Amino acid sequence: MTPSKQEILMQGQTGVAKKVYECVPINEPWTSFQVMTAMRNLTGSTPDNRIVSGCLVSLVDSGLVKKSGRDQFQRIPVDIKQKTQVPAMTKAQPKLEVVADQKVQGGPLEMLSELAGEIAGMANSLKRLAGRVEDVALAVEHEREGNAEAVGKLKQLQELLKGISQ
Q: Which of 6, 18, 133, 140 measures 20 to 30 Å from 65, CA to CA?
């Protein structure tokens, strides 16, 4: 993953998810409990297990963290070497033709790969968002049905009170 791709994906995350991301190690997979312990040590507060788990799922969906095993999470490393190699090659090769050839060969493919990754991440985000919208719509419908029942009961009560007063 390139640094620019990581930055773009991190912009879509919440503040809590960003803190959880900082606690996920690159070298070895950790359980959500280990991540939660590291987060407690980092922030000084005890996060809720469901919130940490939700953030980890969000980070996995966005492609910033990979899930290995049942409850093992590991951060995807960011390739910083690409940026440091290009200036070294330009210093070693005084002609610009070699650098231009390298950009033509690897540049568009890398750019397409990055774009495909971003599109896949956006698609996953849109799927999650659509699921949330469905959940809210169901909750609104349920609440509306409850309100309709309450209005029916209120009308019955009003009729009974009118009957008693007459």
A: 133
In this structure, the number of other CB atoms found within 10 A of the CB of residue 6 comes to: 18
- Decide if 24 contacts 42 (C-beta within 8 A): no
Chain-centre distance of CA 22, in angstroms? Answer: 14
Residue written as tokens 């009003």? Answer: 158
Ranges of each domain in the chain: 1-79, 80-166
Q: How far apart are CA 32 and CA 55, in angstroms?
A: 10
Pick 1-79's CATH classification: 1.10.10.10, 2.60.40.10, 1.20.5.320, 3.40.50.450: 1.10.10.10
| pLDDT tens, N- to C-terminus, the chain (166 residues) | 888 888 888 888 888 888 889 889 888 888 888 888 888 888 888 888 888 888 898 899 888 999 988 889 999 888 876 544 555 555 554 444 444 444 444 578 888 888 888 888 888 888 888 888 888 888 888 889 889 999 999 999 999 999 888 7
Kind and range of the H or E run holding 65: strand 65-67
